[in-house]
Structure formats: structure tokens, C-alpha cells
Fold this sequence. Notes:
nine-stranded mixed sheet, elongated, binds adenosine-5'-triphosphate, BirA Bifunctional Protein, domain 2, alpha+beta, binds magnesium ion, Rossmann fold, 11 helices
Amino acid sequence: MRQSLLFTKARKEAPAGEVAFNAQLLIRAGYIYKEMAGVYAYLPLGIRVLEKIKQIVREEMDAIGGQELIMTALQRKELWEQTDRWDDEKVDVWFKSSLKNGVELGFGWSHEEPITEMMKHYISSYKDLPIYVYQFQTKLRNELRAKSGIMRGREFVMKDMYSYATDEQQHEAFYNGVIEAYMRVFERVGLKDDTFVTFASGGAFTQFSHEFQTITDAGEDMIYINREKNIAINEEVLNEETLNDLGVTKEELTLVKTAEVGNIFNFGTLKTEQLGLNYVDNTGKNIPVHLGSYGIGITRLMGVIVERFADEKGIVWPESVAPFQVHLISLCREENDKKQAEEIYQKLKASGVEVLFDDREDVSAGQKFAESDLLGIPKRYIVSQKTLENETLEMKLRTKDEAEFVKIENIYV
Ligand code: ATP
Ligand code: MG
């Protein structure tokens, strides 16, 4: 991609009123555009990061047998009435509307009900189970506060997965597999050391649900952790009983601020009984299906990555989610040098490297470097008359201060 053609421009200042560090940086660098509080558009650079994160999640969900689909954003009121989750007293984040004929409908803030209803068309026998389905979808939630940038949107991308199993045993095997798959996701985006599988409230038939909490000052949750024992407990469930069950004392635990990047939940047969999703077992008996629900906040994860790795100069993307692997910056002025810079860009691209090529001619070297720091691409190559004379490029990693010269012939992979 040529920076001269990119319609977004880096900015020195974030818009007044944007209080979240992640959104300030992402807006300044041109990854996102703020439409209103908690509502952000994803621009050409931002989409590349989002798609990288989604692809990592997709690979890990596919690896444990997930099948991808997309449910609808418009939802029927009756389904949510059957499970007593239509009432605003019960679910306080609903956006609702109605058809011209007056029929009320809801905008999807979650999808357990419609997807479980849909499964009645595909599940009838034990032979149909287990089924694991997932989607990436824009959820709409009328959040009371939206002050955390893309970490708490009123419109945000979630990966949600649902498991349908014959019994608790089949359910649990998958549930435990999801915990491992989620940790592989967080490892691949560079957050493993700061992300904890955390005991939290909820679970229809279980004592706890599990949250995936990442340490960051930008988070909205507080959890107690013990790194050696690898135990994490959300403060909302910290009491004598929990401590006894988990075999720790409060003195062994440290309180840290975190953001919930994922959440997994065992619904047991609660919802399937309410909605009437049953299967026939091998003796001919009618039995309600076991439901599990598993979320990862894709856009929140992007915000957490920004918060976690950024420095005073700007964003620092881990390789795995960076919009480009290489930022090629040309300082060439002479026609012949410009031609050589162009050649390097073409050859890098042809060798499979994702390159952002700063081919702009009316921008100073200083400004190019400052914007490059803000953008946070892992590796920078500078090409100039001076480097070309030695058949080299200047190479600098975003995470390092020192630069080095590399032979041009050696940069192609
Ligand atoms: P929170 O307690 O932060 O409001 P939640 O319990 O409502 O989260 P879930 O309904 O379980 O979250 O959604 C699954 C995942 O979606 C969460 O773990 C989080 O990563 C993400 N998420 C939830 N709400 C938002 C939001 N408003 N903006 C961005 N991501 C969100
Ligand atoms: Mg919430």
C-alpha cells in the first residue's frame, strides 16, 4: 500500500473529548474514526489489524471443530420473552425498534436465543451432536458508559461461539478445550503472560463462569491473582467459600486492574429447556441439549493490545496483528533513486512481505519518522541516496532505539 494514496492522514492531536488512550492513538494514526461516543468506524489501516486478530481467532476456533456462520442483527422479541431476557429490567443494554406494522424487534446484543432456536431445525438425535458454531459479528449494546475507547463500544465486534452437547461430560470436554484454544489466541497476540483464566460469577448450573482477564490500567475490572499458583479470582466472587474451594488464602493474592477480553459460560440445559431444544438419545428418550457460550471481544482485544504495548511515541503492534510487517520509508529525491526505491517496494511485495510504502514527496524526513512511530509497524526500512550508494537500507525495529544498515539483497524473504 502506498502512503501517498492512503486517504487517512496522521494527526498530532486526538479529537477533544476522546479520553481513552487507545482511541486517541488509533484515531491520530488513522486506524479508526470516531462517529460518536462508543461508536467507531474502522479505516483501511484499522481493518487490517482487525482482520489479523479475527484470523488468529478463526484458526483456533476451527482447530477445535468450530463451524463459522453469521446470525442476523435483527432479532425476534418472542424468543427473548421465552427466556425472560426481553425486559429492559433484565437486560439493560437492549437497543430496540419496531417494524412499520408495529411488531417489536431487538438489535442483537448477544445471540444465545436465536441460535438455539435455529438449532431446533438441525438437532433431533444424539447422532447430530456435538455441534460447535461461531461467528464474528457487530453487537449493539446501549452501554451506560462508553469512556474506554474501542474497549467498550456501543457497537463492537465480538467472536461468539456456542456449543451443543448431549450431556455434561460431552459439554465439559469441549469447554476445557476452549480454555486452551483461548489461551493460544492470547499467546499469539502477545498477551499470554498478562492474561488470566479467572473465576467469575455466573454459569447456570455451575458455581463459576470463566473470564479471560488481561492486566491493564485501562481495564474496568479488578481481580485477585497468584502467578505461581496460576489462580485468578474476580473480586465479585472473592469470599471465604471461594478461597476454600480454590485452596488459597487472601494473603497470597494480589489485586490488579484488568480488562475482560473473553468470557465462557455453561448454560447447562436452562435455555434449551426454555426454548424447547431437545434430542432423542439411543434409548428413544427426549432430552434437553447442553448449551455453552463463549465470547471474545475482538475490538476490545485490539484496544487492549494498543494499551499494553504503546510507548510515548505511539502504537507498537506485535508482529502477529500488525497492519504491515514493514514500513518502507523513502527519502529519495533524485529520479534514479526514486526508481530504485520503487523497485525495492515491488520486490518486497512480490516476496510476500506486507509493506506500507511511504512514497510521499512533500513530507519531511522528521515527520515521516514521527508518523511511522505513531503507526507502530514492527520493522522500518529507510531508503535514501546515502543508503543506496552503499546498496543498503537503514533498518530499525519499532521496539528498539538503535538502527543498523542491511544489504538490500538480503531483505527479500
Ligand atoms: P463487560 O463486563 O465488560 O460488560 P460482558 O460480561 O457484558 O462484558 P459478554 O457479554 O460476555 O461481556 O461478551 C463477551 C466479550 O465481549 C467480553 O468478554 C468482552 O471482551 C467483549 N465485550 C463486552 N461488552 C463489550 C463492549 N461494550 N465493547 C467491546 N467489547 C465488549
Ligand atoms: Mg457488559
